[in-house]
Every structure is written in structure tokens, then in C-alpha cells.
Amino acid sequence: MSAMRPNRSDVHVSLEEERKIEEKTREQFDAIAPKRHTKPQRSDYSSDYSDSQRNFDRDINIPELIKFQHLESDDPQKLNYNGSDTPEEYVETEYYDDLNGVDKQHHTVVFYPKFLSLKLK
């Protein structure tokens, strides 16, 4: 079977009808597309956007979310430090003792040119 070409006598719709079909199609795809809230500027922070999705169930108790919101609302001045002393994070192990000799060992390569010469016959 060969592919059939459209016939010149096929029904053509008017420009107005074509625009209506295009508009209907656009509306259908716009309805399917996910709705997202506007992206804020980097310096602007808002916990709630006016155009955010309303279908999110706000009664869900997610422990991580509750903890995050609690930490976020805490005053940053509450952090207590023991002066300016920071604990020593470096722990010496035997692994580092073995590395002392790495700098002191030198490996040399002896070059013998007569072994590299090729004799072609």
C-alpha cells in the first residue's frame, strides 16, 4: 500500500474556524499544565506566596517539616559557643606515621640506550 496524498477537494475550514480550534486546543493544554507559584527574587523570602497551590493539604503533620519550621522560627542569637575555642578535629593515627618516609625515598631510573636500539634486517 502506498501512502495517500491529501486530495485537493478535502474540506478546508475557514480562518475563523481554524482560530477557534486553535484556541480550544490551547485552553485544553493550559488546563493540563501544572500550576506553579511565581519565582521570587533571590533576596526576597516568603513562607507563603499569594499564588501558591491551594490543593496542598496543610493539615499533614510531617515531623521533619515541623522541626524545620521550628528551627527556622528560632532566634539565631540563641546559639551558644564556648568562647572562641574550637575542638581539635585532627586525630593522629598510624597511617600518618608511615607517610613520613615518602618524601625521603628517591627512586632512580637507569637508562641503557644499547638495549633500546633496534636492529632491522
Automatic annotation (TrEMBL):
It comes from Aquilegia coerulea (Rocky mountain columbine). Residues 1-56 are annotated as: Disordered. This is Uncharacterized protein. Residues 7-29 have a biased composition (Basic and acidic residues). PANTHER family: MATERNAL EFFECT EMBRYO ARREST PROTEIN, OS05G0451300 PROTEIN. Residues 43-52 have a biased composition (Low complexity).
